[in-house]
Amino acid sequence: MPVTLKPEGNIMSEAIRSEAMMRRPWARFIGWIIGCWLASGTAALAAGDYQPILPSLSDKTITLTGRDLTIEQLVDVARFGAKVQLSPEARQRQADNHGLLLEAAAEGIAVYWFNRGAGDQRETVMFSGDPLTPENRAYLEKSQLREFQRGAAAGFGPEVREEEIVRAMMVVRANAMTHNAPSPQLSQMLLDLLNHRVTPVVQSRGTLGEGDLAQLSNVAATMVGSGDAYYQGARMPAAAALAKAGLSPIKPFAADTNALTSSDAYATGIAALVVNDARRALEWADLIYAMDLDGMNSSITPLSAVVQRDRQFRWLNWDAARVLDMLKGSYLFADDPKRIIQDPESLRASSIRQASAWEDWGALRDAVVLQINSSDHNPAVRTDLSPEDSWELATPQMMKFYVKGGLNSHGKHGYIVSNANWDPYPMANKLESFVIALANMDIAVSLRIDRFSNPFFTQITPAQVLHAPPGSGPGFFRLGGGGFTPVDLEQEIQSLTNPIAPSGQAIVGTVEDLQAQTRIKAYRARQAVDTTFDLLAHDIVTAAFWLDVRKAQDPARQFGPAPTAAWSAFRQIVPLMPAADDTSVRSRPMMAAAFLRGTAASQFYGSSPPMPAASENRE
Fold it and tell me: How far apart are CA 162 and CA 215, in angstroms?
């Protein structure tokens, strides 16, 4: 499998099931076992392996309004099994939209992918007149059921192996679909699938990133009992999964195929998980950097107000203040005649690289939050607009799509118009920008690990103050920095930074001639964050080792509350010296990776200066 893409899995999900669980000693041990197994890489997982969620929040219910879903709430549903419900206002909005859709056809208005075809069939009349006449209703029910059933064969493997990705896609669609025109049974079934953990088998490929039709068609198939699905983590025919959940297959109607599948929810769901996990990685990057500074006996002058007031980039100033605050009380603020005047560039500029990654993370976060709370659906359906609301709405062209209102819409009027809201570039561009920023941070992480192997910077060798246990050999001191693996991991991240070349293949009768490759971009970002955790694992191994060195050098030294707390917790999981009766051979960096994934850095430092506001993401 190419290093640039892991569409069928991600090794982070199992190890970060529940932060609350990971705080308990027995759970930390289990987390270490899971993490070490998973951290060996997805190549070790067979194609059929499935990674179910651990529904630790199944007693929590999140209300979807279509307007204010947060990343944290989405993760609670996708990763931890929280339930979902629609707000009364959201349910009414989509019911009004559905009524407007029916009324539009009754009034003879051309509606894309309803009474007109889709793609290169957009001018083909599918039916005429009121969709509720017996003849039209029978046609729509039959044709919609057939399309839903065909969804079982949509897309191309390998299958998505992580339940959280499929659930993330589903909650994104459930929230944004409140702006569209689904039938009531379609909307409710999407909620029911989430709440009963009926998770469709979804193929990872077959989308061009501008409308994830294939993946959402797989969901459609489950709704009518076609294909396969997982019921609470166990695979079975979809009909059996619905039966076990106490659900009956739906009878799709009207434009339900379009209402469900015309969306970028697959890539958006992955992007939301990226935002969540990237924040955890960046929080660890800052805290481990503080530990590194303690371990190097560094000069903290680059973080000081003297420097920060010289160049007032908001995110740079914020991150410097954050790391400086972590170090408050450290011996680094006391005079030490042996402390060198200037650290290597990788340590000196790490705050700048990390702040820049934070800035691009903030931009990505804002784009994803907006994306999950707005419509990327074609056509756009609005019941709250009239010809007098904007000059263009009263023109002859726009009046062709004005629904005056009638029996089917309960008197409501509005517009149904074709659009290009499926184009995901506000989010897609920021996915790539964030990966580039993250890689530029990670090169500094990789280099600062290696700098600890040079006594020119450390002013001491570990062997001068630490004594290797009998039989451990020189490998014990190699814990102090350097080695092949950090470089290998950094090069893997580097390989993900080349932007995907813009593509436009004229397909579907040359109508659909733009592609966004958002699936690839989202999975690349997910892999970059995942591998960053692995790289940071080597960083914390090095940092903790050097805190041991500095403490042995002078037991009176203090490192600051946050670095000390993280160091102490880490040493409970990855001791400096294995127990005398421990004859097992375990990878310290892999143990460290499990620790980072299963433990939030905010557990040790939660009093950060206020993050720059959304409007301040760009200078």
Answer: 14
Per DSSP, the chain holds a count of helices (H) and strands (E) of 22, 10
Q: Does 199 score more than 50 pLDDT?
A: yes
Do 72 and 197 share a structural domain?
A: yes
Q: Which domain holds residue 488?
A: 277-369+426-616
CA distances in angstroms from 537 to 449, 562, 569, listed in the order given: 11, 17, 14
Assess whether 352 and 222 both reside in one domain: no
Q: How far apart are CA 485 and CA 504, in angstroms?
A: 38
pLDDT given at position 46? 39
Q: Are 251 and 186 in contact (CB under 8 A)?
A: no
User: Does residue 378 or residue 468 have the better pLDDT?
Assistant: 378
Domain-located, residue 1: no
Q: Which amino acid is at 350?
A: S
**β-pairing verdict for 228-231 and 198-200:** antiparallel
Beta strands in 164-317 (DSSP E): 198-200, 203-205, 228-231, 234-237
d(CA 584, CA 216): 46
**Alpha carbons 572 and 577: distance in angstroms, whole number:** 11
Distances (CA, A) of 394 to 399, 417, 421: 6, 14, 22
Contact 231, 211 (CB under 8 A): no
Q: What is the DSSP string of 521-576?
A: HHHHHHHHHHHHHHHHHHHHHHHHHHHHHHHHH-TT----HHHHHHHHHHHHHS-S
How far CA 157 is from CA of 201, 428, 525, in Å, comes to: 10, 23, 20
| Residue 46: both structure tokens together | 């067979």
What is the reported pTM?
A: 0.91
3-state SS record for 561-588: HHHHHHHHHHHHHCCCCCCCCCCCCCCH
Coil, strand or helix at 101: helix
pLDDT, tens digit, 9 for 90 and up, residues 398-440: 999 999 999 999 999 999 999 999 899 999 999 999 999 999 9
Q: Whole-angstrom distance between the N-terminal and C-terminal Cα of the chain?
A: 39
Q: Tell me the pLDDT tens digit for each residue of 223-278.
A: 999 999 999 999 999 999 999 999 999 999 999 999 999 999 999 999 999 999 99
Q: How far apart are CA 122 and CA 105, in angstroms?
A: 15
d(CA 287, CA 604): 9
Residue with tokens 């190549």: 43
Report the pLDDT value the prediction gives residue 27, as an integer from 0 to 100. Answer: 43
How many CB atoms sit inside 10 A of residue 11's CB?
26
Q: How many CB atoms lie within 10 A of CB 510?
A: 9
CATH of the domain at 48: 1.10.275.10
Cβ burial, residue 409 (10 Å; 0-12/13-18/19+): buried
Residues 297 and 243 in one domain: no
Backbone φ, ψ for residue 605 (5° rounding): -145, 110
Q: Which of 69-78, 492-501, 528-537 has the lowest mean pLDDT?
A: 492-501
* Of 117-121, 140-144, 448-452, 474-478, minimum mean pLDDT range: 474-478
**Distance between CA atoms of 278 and 275, rounded to whole angstroms?**
5
Using an 8 Å Cβ cutoff, are 439 and 278 in contact?
A: no
Tell me the two tokens of residue 24: 């308990």
Domain total for the chain?
A: 2
